[in-house]
Amino acid sequence: MIDPLRRFERQMRFEPLGRAGQERLGRASVLLVGCGALGGALAQSMVRSGVGRLVLVDRDYVELSNLPRQVLFDERHAHDGALKVEAAAESLKRIGGPTRVEVHAAHLDAGNLAGFARGVDLILDGTDNLTTRYLLNDYALEARVPWIYGGVVAAHGLVLAVLPGRGPCLRCLFPEPAPQGALPTCDTAGVVQPAVAAVAAYQAAAALRLLSGGAGFVPRLLELDLWEGTARGLELRADPECPACARGERRFLREAPEQRAVLLCGRATVQVRGTGERADLARLAHALQGVARNVRHDANCLRFEAEARRFTVFGDGRALIEGTDDLGQALALYDRFVGT
Questions:
Q1: Residue 27 has what DSSP assignment?
Q2: 326-339 pLDDT, tens per residue?
Q3: Which tens digits make up the pLDDT trace of 233-274?
Q4: Which of 53, 94, 189, 281 keeps 20 to 30 A from 101, CA to CA?
Q5: Domains plus CATH for the chain?
Q6: Cα–Cα separations (whole angstroms), residue 326 to 244, 269, 270, 322, 333
């Protein structure tokens, strides 16, 4: 058996971390929301650095267009349409080391976040949508747990460590989510892997510093442009009028879960939420025989094709419907083939 401290001896020679910091990392627990582009790079960093426990939550599956920037997946995962959390766990297991990896194929919302975050010391943002980030911000402030925001599009990136009571939160910078379509996305502006890697590296470095002690850490907003080769850090103060950290508003945590249908970033795919009841996938698979094509059912999900659309239905009743960006059409297809 490999001595875990020997495994990390080069890391411990870095004086600001040292043996004491490494031992703290080994006792730390991290929730990582999303394990695609940012999330995959972050998961690798946490496991290779020796974090004690890593909880992965992701709702999606692997497809071919993920491979240029999502480092935990390969063509086999894309061909099989593997769930991202399961493919991630497989890749992380090959790294070895002491990290305990827990995976949840689920859509994160206000109803389940507290359960996934129970006992964690830090939350990492590997998501692809603002709604979830505002939810994480509310939860972190309420639970007094630090979280690290990261966003990337094209070759640009932003990173902000939110330390409740010690600096600005996300809503100090952006009090309200931008209107739909107001900001560029990976669908409209694209994204390149070096930008993903750089943003994830800054997030991971901040995570290791906080988890290993965090002495003298000053939260900054980091702005990166990998194409132009520029980076700058802005020291910011908490907004005394911030609705979240100054006035205690927790709108995203308290309000009902997000709308039933949402368009996912980067492709013509709509996610439709179920009623919250467990879906009987075996019965649904049987009912779809002769109605849908290529019906495939395993322990985690049901896949089929109908009306020139591809459906992936999960055990919680949630479905991903590929081939449309029309929310109303997706809801109608869901009700027709999956049921309410």
A1: H
A2: 877 787 788 778 87
A3: 999 999 999 999 999 999 999 865 556 788 887 678 999 987
A4: 281
A5: 4-254 (3.40.50.720), 261-337 (3.30.310.10)
A6: 33, 9, 8, 11, 11
